[in-house]
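Hey, can you fold this one?
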Amino acid sequence: MRNATSRILIGTLTGTLAGTLLVAASASAQDRSDWPESFTVGTASQGGTYFVYGSGWANLIADELGISGGGEVTGGPTQNMALVHGGDVALGLTTMGPAAEALAGESPLAPGLSMDNVCALFPMYETPFSITALSDSGITSIEDIPDGARIGFGPAASTSDTYFPAMLETLGVEFDRRNGGWSDLGGQLQDGLIDVIAFAAGIPIPAVSQLEVQTDVNIIEFTEEEQQTVLEAFPVSAFQIPASTYQTLEEDARAVSMWNFTIANCDLPEDFVYEVTKLSMENNDRMRDVHRSAATSIPENIEYNTVLPFHPGAVRWYEENGYEIPEDLKL
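Sure. Predicted structure:
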């Protein structure tokens, strides 16, 4: 009798479990009914941290959520705001300075247009502003940069190109402005076509690491006075580039920085963005595998976004996990 009863119970439980799994599978399929068939992450030029971080993050999403996607080379944070706002890419990476300008209708790409259909997802890392020259140039400080020096500021309208020229002008540097992708500018520096590269990218910057392997370089820090002057004039924070970042550095290098966040078109489905946020925030080890700057891609750093509203899907994950989002940063 016991065996018969056991068989009945097992059969009932098996049937119940199978039914539950079918319901779960059906619910999962239904939840994804409004998901995009594919997605693109707007990054920046090859040779920069944005491209490595954004492409790796896109691959992680695609692999884990089973949706086709990848990174796309763009002009960087300023263009990414425009691309995400217009729905040309679903996801992207931006810096808080260009984000604030775009939201206020002050983007150099579309003056007067408030890019208000862009939502924040999660913090990435701080972008330090740093300067690199070849060792045989004799340039070891900002003061050493000669008048008329050919300085590469990265892609046009990038964070570096938007802020670094103005910073150097504030510090009294006169220069010939050049633009290009970081890898391309690294080649130009080696070939003597430019004198200095003014980088704004997450560290370690692949192009700088590559230069170190191929030649001798100087990584130039701000003096205390120069740093204070820039802090008073621009929306940046004090930063120290750890000596362990590059072979060239013997001690930490004084710099300034700006925070970066991942962004999404605000019209993306809440469930999709929830899953993207959950995957990214609950797997920091895998994010660090993408790029080691992702060590700061953690929910505790959401406080550094005071500009963009968070996507409702991201808000849901944060609040479920005990992180408070200010009301003025909710849609």
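Strands lie at 38-42, 68-72, 91-95, 118-134, 149-152, 175-178, 196-200, 217-220, 237-241, 253-265. Let me know if you want another pass with a different chain boundary.
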